Amino acid sequence: MHNEATLNNDQPDNDYQCHHIFPDNARCGSPRMRNEQFCYYHHDSRRPVVRPHERLARRSTFSLFTPTDHDAIQESLGELLIRIAANDIDPRRAGLLLYGLQISSANLRRKQRAQQTQLRSQPSTQATHESEPKSNVDSQAQSYSQTTPIASP
For 69-72, which contacts have Cβ atoms below 8 Å and span 24 or more sequence positions? Predict the structure, then answer.
């Protein structure tokens, strides 16, 4: 009688166990989902991938434009969006590439703004220096102050 009790304790509780039977007649040991007969892995809502070889073949390598101008960034962005929509690129890699394009776009915008401000400031400083007539008194005083040492008390 003692042996029967130990046998019952060693068997898992079948009420909470997945009902999937493997080819070697062993039963799946995972707990089943609530109000279902199978675990998450063996549930029929989890469908296998259709033609996995074709899916892997679509995941070929691709190239993006070097993000040197806004047109190249837009072309790369379009290519990435097409690949994301077709599920040809994994979401993590797509996110990293999109973030890289965002940084490139921001850096390019900052660089263009800096160049524009330089171009705006250069002609205005040259125009003011050229338009101001120098008087002989100012130029003589400036040359005198540069050449004459000042004695200290």
Answer: 69/108, 70/105, 70/108
